[in-house]
Amino acid sequence: MSNSDTEPAYHYHEQTKHSYQSVRSDTHSLDFSNQPVPFKTYPGLKPIPLPHPLEGTEITALSAVSTTTSPTKEKRIPTLSDLARLLYFSAGITRQKDYPGRTLLFRAASCTGALYEVELYVVCGELPNLSAGVYHFSPKDFALYRLREGDYRAVVAQASGREPNVVAAPALILSTGTYWRNAWKYRARTYRHFGWDNGTIIAHLLAMGSALKLPTRLVLGFVDEELNQLLDLDVQREVTLSIVSFGGMSRKVSEPSTKLEVLELPTLPLSEREVDYPEMRTLHSATAFLSNKEVALWRGETPIRPLPAPEGPVWKLDPDPERAPDSIEKVIRRRGSSRQFEHKPISFQEFSTMLYCSAQGISADFLEPTEVLLNDWYLIVSAVEGLPSGTYVLHREGWFLELLKEGNFRNEAGFLGLEQRLPADASANVFFLADLDAILKQLGNRGYRAVQLEAGILGGKLYLTAYAQRLGATGLTFYDDAVVEFFSPHAQGKSAIFLMALGHGKKGPF
Ligand SMILES: Cc1cc2nc3c(=O)[nH]c(=O)nc-3n(C[C@H](O)[C@H](O)[C@H](O)COP(=O)(O)O)c2cc1C
Asked: What is the pLDDT of residues 371-388, one digit of tens each?
């Protein structure tokens, strides 16, 4: 299968759409007796505990989210304590909730259904207090488990087509997605969730990288098989999704000298039995890169079509990135998805700050130049002071909102967000829509991964910029075609990718 034959991406997208009819004809029920555990466990390996304390950057969340740490020629080597912070504040356990007979452990970044299908691995050279190796991060006991001893960064550098940030990085965090852990509930739609749920984690990694002053870069172009082998993955069940590089050094990593040893490390089963959804593996193969040549061809200018010039009234954003003093760590600790919203309006400045700080460019190999994004921002505004209720589109190049249609669209927002109360009650909803035709034409099937991942990152940033201002947020799923129809004719031809609801969260219990 080739990346440029994009039929598989279109097919998957179409097959996994939600609609009013599809939800009503769905007979799937959850088998709680066979629910997968949310942790990967290697029974044969010894834990290497990660150090506390974790707080301490004193960088505000708004600043950490909106600033990218550009690559530098300066030497910047993360310490073990930096790594512990990166891992904890992206995928660590930050809260627990007790229910009769069970306890739910919530993580730093949001995740569909709290099923936590994304695992993190560290590949590093010699670091202060950590020897070179390939490690699995275990949030359960906040520890690393060493899969390979020695410096394997060159394998990642090679797989990435010698992407300069990867080549110069003392440490890399690789994310993987485990199909069954999320498919237990969401079945084939899980492949979209890989992008969203990895995206929220990456939003936190980028923010923490910025707070720790570590040059940080997201890399999505790599030869898949080489990284899957490095991480000893059973690719029928788990696959590599992304690389994030941290830090920089002048000395380039050396070429790998030996072939990778096959490890086949035993891991504990996730549940008694697993159900396979082969359509996801088919799509994954179609999005995979088989050679460095494909990786090189993939990079270049990002395929975006600018929004048409505004035809309706416009409102210039009025952001204040200094308005919230809380540090990124403090904000991540209190983040959680709002389970109910009040109808109380949010101020125009709060709203502007969320949009402005979350919509800055992302340092990623599929976004060239850095300012561009694959997703467009369409909004339903229901309660923002000084802004007429209605539908809008965000023009990032001038930081203004264009009014598309004035009116009260709370009922429509609720319907589009899969008939849930949350989008109906929210002060505003951000719908991420993308021009899949343009993206797939240039980026191939891999572009499908990129657009879902980017939407998850933007959603993760909105969570953080909302909670920084003591507001609430939640990610949501949606009725695909109804969303596009609702925002048409402006959004004609685009596809719905992700939805975030924003507002004043109500305190539980509900
Ligand atoms: C991509 C994404 C989609 C989500 N979709 C919904 C949704 O449709 N309805 C809902 O109530 N919550 C939704 N959530 C919220 C998750 O259920 C929540 O993140 C998860 O339970 C973990 O809780 P926390 O965010 O409070 O840590 C979504 C979250 C994400 C990241």
From this structure: 999 999 999 999 999 999
